[in-house]
Design goal:
Blueprint: H1 3-11, E1 21-23, E2 32-37, E3 40-49, H2 56-73, E4 77-87, H3 94-110, E5 114-122, E6 127-136, E7 152-155, H4 161-169, H5 175-185, H6 190-198, E8 203-206, H7 211-223, E9 225-229, H8 240-245, H9 251-259, E10 264-266, H10 272-279, E11 287-291, H11 296-305, E12 311-318, E13 324-326
Parallel strand pairs: 4-5, 9-13, 10-13
Antiparallel strand pairs: 1-2, 2-3, 3-6, 4-6, 7-11, 7-12, 8-11, 9-12
Helix pairs in contact: 2-3, 4-5
């Protein structure tokens, strides 16, 4: 859903108050957290969407990695999953759904979780996703509300999946690029999550449908800070900027830009195509992590040891008139 529409809908709803509801939807965190005891809480989230690649097995893997990412973004560990299926059973082979569920099931198993059931309905097009439950120590939750000035900002996957998958739909990308973007989208954020928890991250979110700018904005608002991003440090997937120049811009990117009008300060030196990438909606994107300055070296060593990609792209600053600065 477009961020402006969702914000308007949620603004009209009462905030749920409960002494054990540690994280609700009021600050746009990735998942809800509910305390069961002093040392145990559950993390819950749900996500589903239509296919973005042609291969049903790979789509199932991507959908699972995307849903699991919300738990990882909070610093939690996924334990169970429920399938959510919309399927045009009158005119499509059930073997397609079998492959989607097989791909998803293998990815959930890789995460150390188990699928315990689900729900299906007949639909005009395929839609698939999962509801995920995880566990977390209530004292070690990483929300989007704790970023502090001088924290360094890291991104753990390059940007551009929205532009590339739009290009896939229009037969405008090579097989090699399809393979590359698919491999990235099926990659779990488990290792990056473990590293950020170990190194005392102050805030985190996963970069998905609202793009880098949209999810950075959520941290900025929740933490009452400004996020300063250096354009030349932002990792971008091959050909993403070329596809932006060719007009392969997803509708979600336009909606993200509209929502963030007046909230972003852009340097005149920033290339227009790179600017499009900043708003590009990601599927199963990386984690955006705020690390205290004195823990940066430890974090970089952790991700090196785990052979995980992570790029420092900016820092947290004291609140200014803008939520995000890109130069």
């Amino acid at each position: 859903m477009a961020p402006k529409v969702l914000a308007e809908v949620l603004a009209t709803l009462p905030i749920t108050n409960h002494p054990d509801l540690l994280i609700g939807y009021n600050k746009a965190d990735d998942a809800g957290v509910f305390r069961l005891s002093d040392d145990l809480a559950i993390v819950q989230t749900v996500d589903f969407f239509p296919p973005i690649v042609d291969d049903p097995y790979e789509f199932g893997q991507i959908a699972a990695a995307n849903a699991l990412s919300d738990v990882y973004a909070m610093g939690g560990r996924p334990i169970t999953a429920l399938n959510i299926v919309g399927f045009p059973s009158d005119n499509m082979s059930p073997k397609i759904l079998t492959e989607i569920l097989r791909g998803s099931g293998e990815k959930v198993k890789e995460a150390g979780a188990v699928i315990v059931g689900g729900h299906s309905t007949k639909d005009d097009e395929i839609k698939y996703g999962l509801a995920i439950t995880g566990v977390i120590d209530p004292q070690r939750i990483i929300s989007n509300a704790g970023a502090q000035p001088d924290d360094r900002l890291f991104l753990t996957k390059p940007l551009g999946t929205g532009l590339i998958t739009t290009g896939i739909k229009r037969n405008a990308v090579s097989d090699e690029l399809v393979s590359l973007v698919t491999r990235q989208m099926i990659q779990l954020n488990a290792g990056a999550s473990a590293a950020m928890v170990k190194c005392g991250a102050t805030a985190a979110t996963d970069v998905t449908g609202y793009g880098l700018f949209g999810h950075a904005y959520e941290i900025a608002i929740a933490s009452n800070v400004t996020i300063h991003i250096l354009a030349d440090r932002v990792p971008v997937m091959p050909e993403a900027e070329r596809l932006a120049e060719a007009g392969m811009i997803p509708a979600g990117a336009i909606e993200n830009r509209f929502f963030l009008q007046g909230r972003v300060q852009l340097s005149s030196s920033v290339d227009k195509n790179l600017e499009h990438v900043m708003y590009d909606p990601q599927t199963s994107g990386g984690l955006l992590i705020a690390i205290p300055m004195d823990r940066v070296q430890q974090f970089e060593q952790e991700i090196k040891n785990k052979k995980i990609f992570a790029q420092e792209i900016g820092q947290i600053e004291t609140k200014t008139d803008f939520n995000i600065i890109l130069e």
